Amino acid sequence: MSIKIKLLSTEAKLPSRAYPSDSGLDISSAEEVVIKAGDIQKVSTGISFSVPKGWEVQIRPRSGLMIRDKVIAMFGTIDCSYRGEVGVLLHNTTGNDFKVDIGDRIAQLVIAKIELWQPELVEDLDSSNRGDKGLGSTGKN
Question: Which CATH architecture has domain 4-14+23-113?
Fold first, then answer.
């Protein structure tokens, strides 16, 4: 499968994978920005997509950026109908400003098949063995 990608600036780079079997492709910054301590900022990638119908591209964090720098790429979805520039929201969780340089790998992209669904309003839901037990209901270990 291929996805058409347009480079929108001279700073933009084609997404690439580090290893042939990686499911995600790294996406890079097309601008130099400083993210203030604790802030979330949109970072330009300088690329746009044409995603086939029935698929989406997911923006996911890069583990190295999270572990090493404590900067987290926020999850995002690129729908098949979107043709604008892809931006990545980066959250600087540290107490210091964080500089992003042009060409820095800031997130990864994964494609996923989607099923279109519609909400169906009902009075009652089917019962299950879990019921309404939510966060933390299975214990720590």
Answer: Distorted Sandwich (2.70)
